[in-house]
Amino acid sequence: MRHRIHFRKLNRTSEHRKAMLRNMAQSLIEHGQITTTLAKAKTLQPYFEQLLTSAIKVRKMSAASDEAGALRMRRKVHKVLSDRSMIPAEHRLDYAAMSDAQRSKSLRMVSGRRYRTGEPKGRLVFTGESITRRLIETIAPKYESRPGGYTRIIRLSKHRIGDATQLAIVQLIGEEEAPTSLTKPAKSARSRRCDARYAAAITAAKSWGKSAPKKPSPASEDAAEEA
Questions:
Q1: Reduced to 3 states, what is the DSSP secondary structure of residue 28?
Q2: Residue 36, Cβ density class (10 Å: 0-12 exposed, 13-18 middle, ≥19 buried)
Q3: How far is CA 27 from CA 10, 31, 70, 115, 120, in A?
Q4: Calpha distance 13→6 (Å, rounded)
Q5: Which of 16, 72, 80, 73 is nearest to 47 (CA)?
Q6: Residue 45, SS3?
Q7: Got the DSSP string for 176-213?
Q8: Rounded distance between C-alpha atoms, residue 204 and residue 208, angstroms
Q9: For 60, phi and psi rounded to 5 degrees?
Q10: For the CA atoms of 102, 104, 105, 106, what is the dihedral angle to 10 degrees?
Q11: What is the pLDDT of residues 76-101, one digit of tens each?
């Protein structure tokens, strides 16, 4: 049994591992849930919950008029998450249809600083929103009265094609969809080809059974011998 293993290296260098966890945490903040391997999910869970705890402390210190402490905790969160800009979900299709120049205008001001609130500015219909702001202002208020356990890990029955690694979903508590709203996932191209081959084999077997000569029954053989 492996003892005194405090973290998973995930077969990566420390710089690569930190960047990967930061990107996964940013995606979890943006989408509410992500699908990854089980080992990465178990590593991400405590990493993200520490970030969310720090974001909750920012709000509590601000409410207690401890602006210096709130600024210190906000800088701690910003140091880990950096200043990635995200587009609100309702405007992602419009953003995808924009040119590079229009995208730059919706993400940065004329001075070069990034937009942080996601609200319209001037003639712009929408602007980018800071990941750090989304965590502190939108997600943290939902869990201020919860003493930990902000995420859950759901193991999936399917495995990743290639290395058969078990997959899992990491999602925020309260962000999950109701079971009645879930839809059956679309089949992959590989599954459709497999179903087509299986259906062709069944059709060929049935057609061969109809065209194959029938073996005479024992009663008909006895009647032929008596005659």
A1: helix
A2: buried
A3: 19, 6, 24, 19, 23
A4: 16
A5: 80
A6: helix
A7: PPPGGG--PPPPPHHHHHHHHHHHHHHHHHHHHHHHSP
A8: 6
A9: -70, -40
A10: 90
A11: 999 999 888 888 888 889 889 999 99
Side-by-side strand order, sheet with 151-159? 33-37, 166-172, 151-159
How far is 139 from 172, CA to CA, in rounded Å?
9
Q: Tell me how far apart the 2 most distant CA atoms of the chain are, in Å.
A: 113
* Placement of tokens 């405007």 in the chain: 91
pLDDT tens digits for 128-144? 889 999 999 999 999 99
Check residues 179 and 164 and name the one with the higher pLDDT: 164
Give the sign of the dihedral formed by CA 184, CA 157, CA 191, CA 202: negative
Three-state SS for 56? Answer: helix
16: its two tokens: 């690569």
Judged on CB neighbours under 10 Å (0-12, 13-18, 19+), 16 is exposed
Selection from 127, 129, 134, 131 nearest residue 104 by Cα: 127
